Amino acid sequence: MSKPIRVLLASSEVSPLASTGGLAEVAGSLPQALTEVGLPTMVVMPAYPEALAKAKISGPKLLLAVSMGVELVEFEVLIGQLTSEVPVYLIRCDKFFDRPGLYGEGRTGYLDNPERFTFFSRAVIELLEHLPQKPQVILANDWQTGLIMPYLLEAGPQAPKGIFIIHNQGYLGLAPPSLVSEIGLPDRYYGVEGLEYYGQLSFLKAGIVFSQAVVTVSPSYAKEIQTPEGGNGLDGVLRLYAGKLHGIVNGVDYVQWNPMTDPYIAANYSADDLAGKKICKLALRRELNLSGPDRPLFGMVSRLTAQKGLTLVVESASELFKLGLDLVILGSGEPWFEEKLTAMAEDYPDNMRLVLGYNSQMSHRIIAGSDFVLVPSLYEPCGLIQLYGLRYGTIPVVRAIGGLNDTVRDYAGQNPAGLWDNGFKFSQFQPGALVRAVRRACELYAAPGEWAKMSNMNLKEDFSWTASAQSYAKLIQKVASA
Ligand code: ADP
Ligand code: GLC
């Protein structure tokens, strides 16, 4: 029997050790899914204080160093377990990672983010030499790990092959050209066909250009980033490399997100018995102090950034509440959106609740207790919230874009034969379009038995990692043997 292909996944955030959103959830669950389909996978990430506190560190640590410009930067590698089968290597260099935030604090990102993640990428390459079992393929995620791709090419033919995963084309990972000595690649990597991006350097572009394959997290997003509207200045580069670009929808961690066993919700439930879901809604209404008659309850759990389409919600407030619904938003992010949503919640004290902050347990209670989950994104590479909604029988109302378009089938729309409609979609990024979709959702809620029928079918749909891990496995095998 041939030896299994070993994989190393590198990410700047990995759930549950350190997280700001969906990237961490995928980096935290894909390794186990790959291991289960026969590709043993290890993980490497920065040793932020919260990650050090949560990882079950064991075994001796490694003491290593990389050179960055004229400086020799020493670091430790600590070994912990992400799951019983997935080891995690934590790169500890306190001058870069012992900080309150992952990428910044409040409004401002850390000014040395390019140095921090140049260091991290170099440290991953250095670590390869010291791993007891060498990986044949590295999966690097988003701009923070983009430089790993050219470093692997420079390391020669014996080095692992690189697959670059784009979770968000919106973040280019820009650095000033003055950083070239810290980056330390030969001159030929920096030109327009390499890292150069309108006079700066882009680590995202490094990942795209110098990898063996590029994956993005849904087929629709793979097409959208090849257009001027979605490419963020790199659409031409992505068209040039279209032959190595793949779209694979994210899976959901079905252990973490399971309405039958979820410890954070008021009652457990399944497709066979939705009684628990009613209890979850009652408990959520009580928790939020929402009184009044039973109304369709819409939930949002979101980073508060322009990507998430919150301006549409703010602009359509009066029309939305005329429909007779309740709305709860859990989110954290940019102060501008916090202010706008706070004002909106004050205007509709009987029907709207805003919870500011990052609260995982509450996100479970909102997904389980709402009737609908609203995701009106401007762009959305994959989106996990609508998948959690489907898993919990909470019907998604989404903008038809990126992964939202690939995973939600519009009620009474043109659906593939044999599949039921699992939600509501609208296309134009306009308040009127959002309101029309929400109105159709409220009509379904008002028709006796109809909401429950769709909810029940959705609970049976499979968005676990099973299918997606197989797609990754096929690509990894192809890249490893090329
Ligand atoms: P993105 O990664 O672009 O933020 P996704 O839909 O892929 O979007 O993933 C978002 C993830 O972050 C989900 O798991 C969601 O539950 C979580 N999340 C976002 N904001 C919050 C919050 N304020 N509290 C708890 N979880 C949140
Ligand atoms: C990004 C995207 C989101 C995606 C997540 C995980 O944060 O914004 O759409 O689901 O990564 O891939």
Molecular structure report:
This protein is α/β, with parallel strands linked by helices and 482 residues long. It is 37% helix and 20% strand. It has 2 domains: 7-251 and 465-481, Glycogen Phosphorylase B (Rossmann fold); 275-458, Glycogen Phosphorylase B (Rossmann fold). It has helices at residues 22-36, 49-54, 94-97, 113-128, 148-154, 180-183, 203-210, 219-224, 235-240, 275-287, 310-315, 317-322, 335-347, 360-369, 385-391, 402-407, 431-446, 450-459, 465-481, and strands spanning 7-10, 41-46, 62-68, 71-81, 87-92, 104-105, 108-109, 137-141, 161-166, 174-175, 196-197, 200-202, 213-216, 245-247, 297-304, 326-333, 352-356, 372-375, 395-399, 424-426. The strands form 4 sheets. Strands 3-4-5-2-1-8-9-13-14 form a 9-stranded mixed beta sheet, sandwiched between helices. Strands 17-16-15-18-19-20 form a 6-stranded parallel beta sheet, with helices on both faces. Strand 11 (196-197) and strand 12 (200-202) form a beta hairpin. Helix 1 (22-36) packs across helix 19, helix 5 crosses helix 7 (203-210) and helix 10 packs across helix 14 (360-369). Residues 21-23, 26, 167-168, 217, 250, 380-384, 403 line the site of alpha-D-glucopyranose.
Search tags:
482 residues, alpha/beta, 2 domains, globular, binds adenosine-5'-diphosphate, binds alpha-D-glucopyranose
Topology:
Layout: E1 7-10, H1 22-36, E2 41-46, H2 49-54, E3 62-68, E4 71-81, E5 87-92, H3 94-97, E6 104-105, E7 108-109, H4 113-128, E8 137-141, H5 148-154, E9 161-166, E10 174-175, H6 180-183, E11 196-197, E12 200-202, H7 203-210, E13 213-216, H8 219-224, H9 235-240, E14 245-247, H10 275-287, E15 297-304, H11 310-315, H12 317-322, E16 326-333, H13 335-347, E17 352-356, H14 360-369, E18 372-375, H15 385-391, E19 395-399, H16 402-407, E20 424-426, H17 431-446, H18 450-459, H19 465-481
Parallel strand pairs: 1-2, 1-8, 2-5, 8-9, 9-13, 13-14, 15-16, 15-18, 16-17, 18-19, 19-20
Antiparallel strand pairs: 3-4, 4-5, 6-7, 10-12, 11-12
Bound molecules: adenosine-5'-diphosphate and alpha-D-glucopyranose.
